Hints:
Elements: H1 3-6, H2 9-15, H3 28-33, E1 55-64, E2 67-76, E3 83-88, H4 96-107, E4 111-115, H5 131-138, H6 143-159, E5 163-172, H7 174-183, E6 191-195, E7 222-227, H8 235-247, E8 252-257, H9 274-290
Parallel strand pairs: 3-4, 3-5, 5-6, 6-7, 7-8
Antiparallel strand pairs: 1-2, 2-4
Amino acid sequence: MTLNSALAxxxxxxxxxxxxTRRGFMTATAAAAAGYSLAAGPVxxxxxxxxxxxxxxxxxxxxxKDGEMPGYFARPAGAKNPPIILVAMEVFGLxxxxxDVTRRLAKLGAFAVAPDYYYRAGVxxxxxxxxxKLMPIVNAKPDSELLSDLDATAEWAKSQGGDGNRLGIIGFxxxxxxxxxxxxxxxxxxxxxxxxxxxxDPPNPLWPKSPMQLAAEMKAPVLGLYGAEDQGIPPAQVxxxxxxxxxxxxxxxxxxxxxxxxxFHADYRPSYRKEQxxxxxxxxxxxxxxxxxxx
Length: 295
């Protein structure tokens, strides 16, 4: 078995990125104080910061089968019956970038919720400093538990006044894989958007089927947003997924962005590509509007 075949696609993409200079990045201390993950590496000084004006934001306490799962939510203040968008995080935990994305979605009119579904590990993933120490924890998350947690998050949002008939999901990196998995699972989901989500998994008994194997089981349309320079998810693999979905007559669209590596939307990391990230965000909005998640 080669090294790459033993690693998840997102791990390869995260560890094989272009070189960078230290200029324009926060110190590790400043990044930690600002709420960013330490394992994610250098944090850009000019990260996007979304204010809370006009929003209700805060921690969520989501009832799950074995207790209470923490999370973070943002919704338009005073809005009645807003659409629900689940935010599936990267492997780095519920850190400031994911919270900011949640606020950005709320500014678009959504009740956005990011569940901290790795909480059972009993360790704060944002405080882990090295990816090799982080991956065994996130790779131990069973898909069955993940899907149950996402269902519980949707139910929690509905109990708080969100519109369960306009349910969407967005995810990044490992969370992008979660989008594909959830689209094959949930009969309530209206649409999903996967940012560079893994399509083919390494052997793991906790992950019965990879997104590629689930192509014929998709219950909701998904928009896949990928980078042409992603070292873990090559364009040929994206085209393979596109063909599998087309053969199964499942609605989906893909955009492979030239010059974009894995994590091109992560505005806090060196992998960020502003032009591609902004275009992808616009395509995400159009997709959710097309399927009546966003107004």
